[in-house]
Amino acid sequence: MESSASVRTEQFVCGLRETVVSTGQVFTTQWHEFILSEDYNKMTSAKNYPAHQNRVTMVQFILEMEWVLSTGQDKNFTWHCTESGRRLGSHRTSAWALCLQFDIQTRHAFVGDYSGQVTILKLDPDNCSVVTSFKGHSGGITALYWDPVRRTLFSGSSDHSIIMWDIGGRKGTAIELQGHNDKVQSLCYAHHTRQLISCGADGGIVVWNMDVKRQETPDWLDSDSCQKCDQPFFWNFKQMWDSKKIGLRQHHCRKCGKALCGKCSSKRSSIPLMGFEFEVRVCDSCYESITDEDRAPTATFHDSKHNVVRMHFDVTRGWLLTSGNDRVIKLWDMTPVVS
């Protein structure tokens, strides 16, 4: 959870051992292990782990392996053995490491950083190797969620977008989701209904239907002139001189990706199957091809009335727990929308 003093604390109750792992106070460079009493009313400090040289951003406990993974603003991802307290290894990222996920079966760690890059690491008891890295966000990675069943990774970013990376199936496929007006803070997934839940700094809770055939957003094309009317853009000095015309500003159609002037892309439309739940700029020809059925929303929007920084979804009861910068914890019954 995160308080108004911007303290990020991750707590994980390790059921069999009855311990809690926490990142501690403001700008802490270590995380702590506590022993919980049987009635859960008292915590006794057990170990301190000096894992980082700058603020710890996330901690994840893997009960099956007795590992604790952590990321920090020292650009390091580390993992420790909780039985011995020994540091097993670390990996240095290109920017602040902000969030992580872990696949128990394959021992792959997914680390998101401030530059917008996600790095996949293969972990062994004493070392790690880089499998690959990919980048699709223009802002830092603020949230990750790994679905081990469908081998899909969801990443949320400060650029207000979510990307679904199909790692296990169609490798390289990236589906973009646009439904927040501020940075995405937390993600969770309902496997039984194939619905993604996202929370953001805009106070919005968005429930995405992922059981539809979605389309990849096209790459934006490069051109020195409008690809519809051939009017030069303002940096194309030669064509402006030859045609005696003033250069125009460049825009892009979100459906086809063509580079266009403002006149040829004056229409706006939602394209939910491409992830655009809000209206975006499209060219005139693409606007005519979009039907009312294509505009049918694939997500529902709910106002949490606070800046959500962390959430947890209980699949068995359909309850969603959110915490915000206002120091308020809210419990939501999501069964009417996640079912």
Search tags:
four-stranded antiparallel β-sheet, mainly beta, Herpes Virus-1, single chain, disordered N terminus, Methylamine Dehydrogenase, Chain H, 2 domains, 339 residues
Topology:
Layout: E1 12-14, E2 19-22, E3 31-36, E4 43-49, E5 56-62, E6 67-72, E7 76-81, E8 87-92, E9 97-103, E10 108-113, E11 117-123, E12 128-135, E13 141-147, E14 152-157, E15 161-166, E16 173-178, E17 184-190, E18 195-200, E19 204-209, H1 237-243, E20 251-252, E21 259-260, E22 267-271, E23 276-282, H2 284-289, E24 299-303, E25 308-314, E26 319-324, E27 329-333
Antiparallel strand pairs: 1-2, 2-3, 3-4, 5-6, 6-7, 7-8, 9-10, 10-11, 11-12, 13-14, 14-15, 15-16, 17-18, 18-19, 19-24, 20-21, 22-23, 25-26, 26-27
Secondary structural class: mainly beta
Instruction: Report how far the terminal alpha carbons are from each other.
Output: 27 Å
Strand order within the widest sheet? Answer: 1-2-3-4
H-E order: EEEEEEEEEEEEEEEEEEEHEEEEHEEEE
